[in-house]
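Same chain as my last thread, 121 residues:
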Amino acid sequence: MTKVTKKLTCIECPKGCRLAVDVDNGKVVKVAGNECPKGEKYAISEIENPARILTSAVLSQGLALKMIPVRTDNPIPKSRIFEAMAEIKKIRVKKSLKTSDIIVENFMGLGVDLIATRKAK
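reply #2:
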């Protein structure tokens, strides 16, 4: 890979700074356009190790809701989103839940929990 400049819009604060990020071999070498230190941190994370909070729903059995909305409690690597969705499809909830109850602890060994975002009885 050669040196390239990528354009990003920072989402860390309401300013929405337009960033120009110089990348060499997958590593950030320069960030320009940020008006605060958050922009540089965001650019480095987004280029070198992008991660997202995953939101979805799991099937239930014997509960009033047929689908229980869920999310990870922390971001997971963006490269593992499709694998995580395949794992979520296998989950069946059979007991009542409160909002923020853990459905799967240490989801996929990623150090994050899969939690309910709505109560279900």
